[in-house]
Amino acid sequence: MSTIQAITSIEGWEQHVSSLPSSTLLIVSFHAPWAAPCAQMANVLSTLASEYPVTEPLSTSWVSIDAEELSDISELYNVTAVPFLVLVRDGKVLETVSGSSAVKVRDAIESHAKQTPNSAQNGAKGTAAPDNDTAGVDKDDTEVSEEDAEKKKEELHKRLGDLVRAAPVMLFMKGTPSEPKCGFSRQIVAILRENAVKYGFFNILADDEVRQGLKEFADWPTYPQLWVDGELVGGLDIVKEEMSNDPDFFKPYSVKANGETPA
């Protein structure tokens, strides 16, 4: 019977994915240790996995990932809440299931486990790519499109530049300070509160344009991101490192240090 393998590193993930045949259904369960529904989902998936024999070639592969420890992978699959299930075959996402509904999870897995790559492709037969003679693109249209895209990018970067300077300390996080949507965001909020830091925040889950654009703008692929005086500090690990090297790192931005009354 199949069992669930815990993936604990990027290298382990890449090695596992590269070892799978293209026909294998990869079942990826994202979880977090602090989220109670994840424990329930782990039991559900363990039971489901036991119903699928280990075959040659491998028909299904079951893995679990701590969504916060391996946030790069979480970002790759747009994981914004846990538990979160992703079904992948040959590098393509077939379906995602958010939440702890055992029925939805079972139905999704059973549906895609029954399919083979060939049967999935059969539905696409007869849809041929257009010939070059009939698929011409006007050069002027292409140039206009490129100009529009560049203009849109410039406008976004200006908006992002204004956002990161909206307050001396700006936190781009998943969720809000009162309701963080990931443990990393929750921990940074706690650090800022412990140091009585007056800060602004932006919920990147509410604006996908900002969420995707800030990754390129900052050259930093994950969230949360903390910015101070318009300059990127980094994520949780970097913030902790800064605090370790300089316990007064946040002192210039502390409400108490400036004689203000904490909100």
From TrEMBL:
One example of a Gene Ontology biological process annotation: intracellular iron ion homeostasis
Region (Disordered): 112-156
Function: Monothiol glutaredoxin involved in the biogenesis of iron-sulfur clusters. Binds one iron-sulfur cluster per dimer. The iron-sulfur cluster is bound between subunits, and is complexed by a bound glutathione and a cysteine residue from each subunit.
Recorded superkingdom: Eukaryota
Keyword annotations from UniProtKB, A to Z: Iron, Iron-sulfur, Metal-binding
Regions of compositional bias (Polar residues) in chain numbering: 114-124
An annotated Gene Ontology molecular function: disulfide oxidoreductase activity
Family according to the record: Belongs to the glutaredoxin family. Monothiol subfamily.
Record-linked CDD domains: GRX_PICOT_like, TRX_PICOT
Pfam family, one: Glutaredoxin
GO cellular component term of the entry, any: cytosol
Boundaries of every Thioredoxin domain copy: 1-114
The protein's name in its UniProt record: Thioredoxin-like protein
